[in-house]
Amino acid sequence: MFSFEFMQNAYLAGTLIAIVSGMMGVFVIARNMPFMTHTLSEIGFAGAAFGIFVGWTPLNGMLAFTTVSSIMVGELSGAVESRRESVISAISGLFIGLGILFLSLSRKNSSYATNILFGSVIGISRQDVIQMAALSVLVLIVLLLIYRNLKDDSFDSVGAQTNHIHSRLISLVFLVILAFNVSVAAQIVGSLLIFVLLTLPASSAKYFTHTVVRMMGLAIIFALFGVWIGLYLGYLTNWPVTFFIAAIEAVIYGVSLFYNFIRSKSE
Amino acid sequence: MSETLISVENLSLSFPNHPVLSDLSFQVNRGDFLGVIGENGIGKTTLVRVILGQLRPSAGKLVIQEGVKIGYVPQFRNVDIEYPLSIKDFIALNFTGIKLPWLSKKERQRVKKVIQQVGLAKIADRPLGLASGGEKQKAYLAQALINQPDLLILDESTASLDPNTKKELLDVVLRLNREMGLTIFFVSHDMQMIHEYPDHYLWLQKGKYEFGSIKNLHNENKEGQYV
């Protein structure tokens, strides 16, 4: 399997994605942002379609759109928490429409849309892997820099207010690195299912361990397991990798819920 | 004469068409245990928010001595049954700033110390979401203590507790005050508690207030006027 360069690239990219998504996912869950993550992936679809339309790579198109829109969502919804879901819905709808428009205007065949929406293992070049690695390192550096304040704001927003944490700034920085994360991860799992890696591993991890660092570690393990096995099964069966990754992560989540149910009964 | 940590002079605060605090004057000295009482909605939390710098007074002034560190235990917290962090990790959240992600040795020792002070050592590794109401309040208290405050503000920390758990928490607070000299600003609508623990009281009432030594309150026998 590893004699094919595209499989080497897919495993390298998949490993990066699993590590970054596992770490970021813990904060996505703590900040109650799965819906926002899903929306960023839809915006990513529009960005990729725009990239194709203007002759950029889909990744660059995604980066441009998700970064700008994450700032828009942050600014529009930041002041009023209850407004956030409505703002996200409006932006999400607008961008899916734009994605469809750009695809139509660029006159590319439907396989482009399929690749963006569902991901593609074959399409990842060594150069893509290098760009993805650079972006992943950037996300991790920013995450480390804001780690303590982000942790306080995410796991105790009421307490963070009295610690004079600049919550809106932290939210904005987090949204931007989340946009980078989504754009990178969409290359393998596709923009439709990126939220799988950003939500399910972290949601599962919180039932087994109770410190942020350990939750991040376990979420990375769950994400890596899904991506590695998913790629392997995709290679064996020629079925979509995305299906396997989503199915494995959903099973892990189901088992975690069951474990929590059994544990709470026995206590 | 004891050192004044907070000095409030003729402080008023109004929301549009709704005066909340009017012409309030009092001071909090180092080592005081001040009980702030008043019915729900009378402006107790508003006063706390002014002290914390989250609201500006409409008139008058509030001076906090330079360098005074305030620890705050808020009235409400977003902690449900699935809240994943352990009590220990929750307490350490208050170590903020741009620093290394992991705790230093000094910070770990400090976490251990405050956990012992509030009596949570045995369950420090359990998820906070599964803790009882009293244990949660102790964890919130420990978190507020982590940065070694001079003044500790507790906002209705005993409101949802049964009598035994309430006494247990208040005994911890009293010990912090008596043994460590920590200044306490305890907000409550529970008149009974005010008679038993604080040495000073600030009683907010509609359009007026009373401030003084708790002995005066005993003498005037106002116990149980409302709960």
UniProtKB/TrEMBL annotation, chain A:
Top-level lineage group: Bacteria
Location within or outside the cell: Cell membrane; Membrane
Topology of the protein relative to the lipid bilayer: Multi-pass membrane protein
Segments traversing the membrane: 12-31, 43-66, 86-105, 129-150, 170-200, 212-235, 241-262
Keyword set, alphabetical order: Membrane, Transmembrane, Transmembrane helix, Transport
Record family assignment: Belongs to the ABC-3 integral membrane protein family.
PANTHER family linked to this entry: ABC-3 PROTEIN (PTHR30477:SF21), ABC-TRANSPORTER METAL-BINDING PROTEIN (PTHR30477)
Name of the protein in question: ABC transporter
Organism the protein comes from: Lentilactobacillus fungorum
Automatic annotation (TrEMBL), chain B:
InterPro entries: AAA+_ATPase (IPR003593), ABC_transporter-like_ATP-bd (IPR003439), Metal_Ion_Import_ABC (IPR050153), P-loop_NTPase (IPR027417)
UniProt cross-references to CDD domains, sorted A to Z: ABC_Metallic_Cations
Keywords of the record: ATP-binding, Nucleotide-binding, Transport
Domain ABC transporter as annotated: residue spans: 6-226
SUPFAM superfamilies: P-loop containing nucleoside triphosphate hydrolases (SSF52540)
Xref: Pfam families: ABC_tran (PF00005)
Keyword Hydrolase included in the entry's annotation: no
Gene Ontology terms, MF aspect: ATP binding
Family the entry assigns: Belongs to the ABC transporter superfamily.
PANTHER family assigned: METAL TRANSPORT SYSTEM ATP-BINDING PROTEIN TM_0124-RELATED
Full protein name: ABC transporter ATP-binding protein
Origin organism lineage: Bacteria, Bacillati, Bacillota, Bacilli, Lactobacillales
Name of the encoding gene: znuC
